[in-house]
Amino acid sequence: GVGETDPLSPINPAALALLRRGGLYLQSEQESRSIDAAGQSGNTRAYRFPLFSAAVPVGSRGMLGVSFSTLLDRTWGTESRDKQLFGADSVAFTERFRSEGALNDVRLAGSWAISNSLTVGLGVHLFPGENRLTISRVFDDSLVFAPLRDSANVNFFGTGYSAGLLWRPVRSVTVGASGRVGGTLKLREADSVRTTADVPSRYGVGVRWDAAGTTVAFRADRTLWSKMGGLGSARANPDDVWDFGLGIDAAGPRLLGAPLTLRGGARRRTLPFLAGNEQVRETAFTLGTGAPLARGRAQVDLFLERASRTAGDVDAKERSWTFGLGLTVRP
């Protein structure tokens, strides 16, 4: 919910100004995901570092920052059973296909406070990425039929630009708005350009209200994923999506002398890729807390998220638990 006005989120470059003293931020996530489809079920676990950012002040009104975040995670795997004919013999096998990697967003951004109520920001983006693809076929009769294995690596690279602003019409209300324009995105395999598309552009707006130790925020975001259509294959036709978030931060009790912040949020969005020609919708709820350390020179944040995905009449449901840890260090 606070994404457009959050200096630690690589969304609105103007929000960097809210860091004031600058600092470093690192976030880690551990996810457990399950899927039930057509009477079958499966589970996956993933551990990743989706965000790193750093910022330093420039004069009394400016801030310069760099961030590294995940734009599109492409880590997944499938397993299927089938049979293959060798002359008159039919041999059963297990086929596994796995993809590991992601498309990342590296942003260099700056913000400048024009006045006490208006701040603007600009960002330059690089989008590097890699997918490591492997396929294997293991036959049940392994004494007679040797397993088959193959692998390939594909790389991505693109550019983009972003701009944003923060406006405080009154002391308790902050409005944030930002947008990103994507440039050409190239897919390379073995040093050869295979396909090209555009980095997905996006735009969004958010409103935050602060009063008496409580913050309430709402955000809406539109991402034009269709610009990536055909990057991997002719059948890869992603949809443009909406993303809505609502969040509440409130002052909590003290623990070991440190004041706690209590957080709750909800998110509703559509995903860019279809399932059985149906749009996939995700609903997520989050609870979290944060506490300062070292006399305010550091902060630790914890959160737990429960998410579920459905796709119209498709007989499949996906659910996940995500535990996150964030650490901020300030000079």
Give the termini separation. Answer: 27 Å
- What spatial form do the alpha-carbon principal axes imply? globular
Give me the count of strands: 16
Proportion of helical residues: under 10%
The overall pLDDT, averaged over residues, is: 91
**Biggest sheet features:** 14 strands, antiparallel, barrel
Overall SS class: mainly beta
Please give the order of strands in the largest beta sheet: 1-2-3-5-6-7-8-10-11-12-13-14-15-16
Strand percent estimate: over 45%
Rg over alpha carbons: 23 Å
**Count of alpha/pi helices:** 0
Structure description:
This protein is an all-beta fold and 331 residues long. It is 0% helix and 73% strand. It contains no helices and 16 strands. It has a 14-stranded antiparallel β-barrel with strand order 1-2-3-5-6-7-8-10-11-12-13-14-15-16. Strand 7 and strand 8 form a beta hairpin. The radius of gyration is 23 Å and the shape is globular. The mean pLDDT is 91.
Quickly list its features.
14-stranded antiparallel barrel; 73% strand; mainly beta; 331 residues
Could you give the topology of this structure?
Elements: E1 23-37, E2 40-58, E3 62-73, E4 76-86, E5 89-113, E6 118-139, E7 148-170, E8 173-189, E9 192-198, E10 201-211, E11 214-224, E12 241-255, E13 258-270, E14 281-293, E15 298-310, E16 316-329
Antiparallel strand pairs: 1-2, 1-16, 2-3, 3-5, 4-5, 5-6, 6-7, 7-8, 8-9, 8-10, 10-11, 11-12, 12-13, 13-14, 14-15, 15-16
